[in-house]
Amino acid sequence: MKRRWMAGLMTLALCLAGGSPALAEPLPARDMIYRTPNEESEVLCEHDFCFWQLTEGELDETLVWQVLMQPLTVLSGKQRDQIRVRARPEKDCTDYVGVVTCASQGVHVLRQEGEWTLIEAYSSAEEGSKVKVWATRFQGYVKTDLLKELPVDDTYGIVIDKLQQRLYVYKEGHLFSTLICSTGFPREDTPWNETPAGEYGIVSWVGAFWSGNLYCDKALRINSGIMLHEVPCTIEVDENTGEEKRDYFRCERYLGEKASHGCIRIQKELTPERVNAEWLWKNLSRKPVTKVIIWDEIGRQLSYPDDDYPLYYNPKGGKNYHSSANCVMVKEKYRPLTAFTWGELDDEPYSKLTPCPGCAPQLRAEGIDTVNEKNTRK
């Protein structure tokens, strides 16, 4: 918040001095109020380039990349092991304030007190956990000798925004590609389905698994049972030929909103940069680990994009609108696509266009209104 406030003062000072700021590019949807994960904590963060000091929804590539490149502090243990975090630095304390997954979940070190360390994290308690703290931020104590620092990959990093339901791939300091995703959808009787925010490392290439009658492929573990994976499908086998038919429609239609049991479902369609869930499976680093940042949505609200924010469509029968003039979801002969602006979306001939499932274009105004109305987490 301070950074945005100072930027506004600098612009005002420049105008009063007789100068004029450089013409800014039109902005996409962004946060109306800027928050950091640590700002309401009892012990405030004093680190430089720390996830807990990073503004949620941050658009500055340099700031995001600096955070993605910081080592990840985790708790020693196996990938599915979980540690209950104590309210007090006492061996006999059974007042547990949250749960942390070993090996993959990043913890925020606030203060070391000899054999105990005060940490901050988002609770990863699962179904059946005795610690009924679901995906919320907490501070508590762990044994200092459990702390372990992991180096991270310096080519790629991942940011997931639970408010916008977007997965951002960063490459060598710049936003490389944007994908549509679905994070966990909790109900009153299944609060553990909420995807916890925080920092994580991709620690194993799990592959395919079944969730009920849904087939989930190309799964990458980031937090006990939580994985990044391709949007699920159902599979039918032809009795005569034995051939499999995969149907993705059931889950693809919910991409862009909460829908999973906690995992992050990712589009199988290619972005303009030819990135999808399969690309992540093939290209992200196994060692050192690829860092994944997940922004929470608590207390956040989206603004509309600038009216002159660019969009694209195919005037020769196209049914979708796009974020890129060269979206690979459109046949090459129709590319580059024709430009128009977000402010024209409700005008003819754009009013009936639907968002492309490959290139993650900006939502319409009513879509942004729905995101804000559904964001009721406190």
Under CATH, the homologous superfamily of the largest domain reads: L,D-transpeptidase catalytic domain-like
The share of residues in helices is 10-25%
- Number of contiguous helices: 5
With strands numbered from the N-terminus, the spatial order across the biggest sheet is 11-18-8-9-10-17-14-13-12
| Largest sheet: number of strands, sense, barrel closure | 9 strands, mixed
Mean pLDDT reading: 93
**Rg over C-alpha atoms, rounded to the nearest angstrom:** 22 Å
**At the first level of CATH, what is the class of the largest domain?**
Mainly Beta
Structural class: mainly beta
Structure at a glance:
The chain has helices at 2-16, 61-68, 249-252, 277-283, 365-374, and strands spanning 72-75, 82-86, 96-101, 108-113, 116-124, 134-143, 147-150, 156-161, 166-171, 174-182, 198-201, 204-211, 214-223, 226-230, 234-237, 244-247, 264-266, 291-295, 310-313, 320-322, 338-341, 354-355. The chain is mainly β and 378 residues long. The protein has 2 domains: 1-12 and 30-302, L,D-transpeptidase catalytic domain-like; 310-372, no CATH class.
